[in-house]
Amino acid sequence: MRNERSLRIMTAEGSLLGSVEEGIFVFKGIPYAAPPVGELRWKAPKPVNAWQGDKDATDWGPASWQSREYCLAVGGGDPGRFHEDCLYLNVWTPDISPTTLLPVMVWIHGGGYAVGSGGLTPYLGEPLAQRGTVIVTINYRLGQLGFFAHPALDREYADGEVVNNFALLDQIAALQWVQRNIRAFGGNPKNVTLMGESSGARSVLSLFASPLAEGLFHKGIVQSAYGVPDVSRAEALRKGQALASHFNLPDASAEQLRALPAESFWPLDRALSIGPVAIHGDRVLPQPMLSVFTAARQQRLPLMIGSNSDEASVLAYFGVDAAKVIADIRRKHPLALRLIKLLYPDVWDDDELGRQVARDMTFTTAGYIVALAQHRIGMPGWRYYFDYVSENAHDLYPHGTWHGNEIPYVLNTLGQLEPVDPARPFTEGDHDFSQRVSEYWLRFARDATVFSHQINGETDWPTWHPWSDITLRFGRHGLACIAPEKRFMRRRMQVFRLLMRAFVHLRHD
């Protein structure tokens, strides 16, 4: 049995007192930067003040202000307490003094940059830590607290030094904390995998594109990143001024903006927010993320990317009717619809066609573009497609794997979740598939380097190249399988890539 004294760890900022859960050392609510409150609102995170004595690290830190109801519905569960003071992270480690330092996996939660926290049940780190990794999850600023621009704030910066992507800066600060401290938890600061889903995946890609994140991580896993262009600074400034006018501050000063209650932002109309993307044109993200990848100018690091078979499941939450979208295209652009139908010859129903087009244009093609960018810079990239549904829930998910439903499989947290319907518990087959799939995430984190040609596993997974065009399928038609597929959606990807490049170019101009 582990000695109680081993729960105390000394970091660069002070001593932490953690706990043991399921045989794993767990440290929760560790501050990685100073509270971004008062004068520090809408500023780059500052170093946390060192403390004396032991700091309790057995409770989650607060999450950024958000809608609890929305997070419960689509964000992965109850995010816990809310506060503007939200820059905290959590660490799970199997061994604080291993013979060989362990690979580190840093998880950035999704939620459209509007909801979520690092302590949600699908993200808990025990299962992967039990298999030999150090897991880190983080909280960061959300909504207008995380992404904001206003002329009054611009005046605080010298030319070329303006920052608007405060959430990305928080993530960078968390990675700096990892570089300073993770060795004390048994982790290898020279083998850090950055991973995330949805807006968390967008964050990983944004940090691949940010000059401020260089040297802080060594590879990336990108789950269900969407190909929506970043917001320009000009548009962000317009929204910032509209927000100030909403609060009857048409000529707002920085002091007046910082005096607004932190909890007053999250209930605002979506038109006043930036998400679910970042802002391009500041010092954090000088160029749009998609433009960086289409030009193959991202960091030269290994990267895994993929998406799910029913990503269009998120459409309903944004009030989008897939069948109506197709009907509108038929009415306004009949020639475009004819081209689309050639790409989907077996789909006749407008609703199903709309779902598949939305999935592929918004999600699947993003993975193809990123994999191609990796090939162009000579860095290993792996592409996957997730299409498994819990054995007791096939009728609940007739179109395939919903947006986000892969998370408990790849993080191996299925055993910690309650099923959607208690009468439909997760099966032995579900747990077996979770174990098999998560092994690829672990092997990537442990073994992938800039020189890798494949990830070894029950089925070896070769790096992606345009001539072989191999995608690894995790599931097929909802059933368990792990199998490579050549030229997966190749014609669709080629067409949609051209459309996306043109769209990104137009938005950038």
Tags for this entry?
single chain; about 500 residues; alpha/beta; ten-stranded mixed β-sheet; three-stranded mixed β-sheet; about 20% strand; globular; disordered C terminus; Carboxylesterase/lipase family protein
Protein model, in words:
This protein is α/β, with parallel strands linked by helices and 509 residues long. The protein is 32% helix and 18% strand. The protein contains 15 helices and 17 strands. The strands form 4 sheets. Strands 3-4-6-8-7-9-10-13-14-17 form a 10-stranded mixed sheet. β7, α2 and β8 (134-138) form a beta-alpha-beta unit. α10 packs across α11 (334-343), α10 (322-332) crosses α12 and α12 (350-376) packs across α15 (490-508). The longest helix has 27 residues, at 350-376. Mean pLDDT is 94; it is low at 1-6 and 505-509.
Q: Topology of this protein?
A:
Elements: E1 8-10, E2 15-17, E3 19-21, E4 24-31, E5 54-56, H1 68-75, E6 88-93, E7 102-108, H2 126-129, E8 134-138, H3 143-146, H4 151-154, H5 166-181, E9 187-197, H6 199-209, E10 219-223, E11 231-232, H7 233-246, H8 254-259, E12 279-280, H9 289-294, E13 303-308, H10 322-332, H11 334-343, H12 350-376, E14 381-388, H13 407-410, H14 428-447, E15 454-455, E16 461-462, E17 470-486, H15 490-508
Parallel strand pairs: 2-5, 7-8, 7-9, 9-10, 10-13, 11-12, 13-14, 14-17
Antiparallel strand pairs: 1-2, 3-4, 4-6, 6-8, 15-16
